[in-house]
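Write out the 3D structure for:
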Amino acid sequence: NIYNPTNGSFLGTPKDIFGIALDFDGLWSLFQDDGNVYFTAGIVDENHGIFGAIF
């Protein structure tokens, strides 16, 4: 879900181009900056973490 970082209010759920809510197994967080999306996720039953970027 997406929340306003200033006041914590709920803004919505990220959706794909068809309006279906995005669902990534193991996803911990998403961060958008300067048109790029960064993410963290738990892999191998969340015993390891990964950081990535989508440009």
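Residues 25-55 form one domain.
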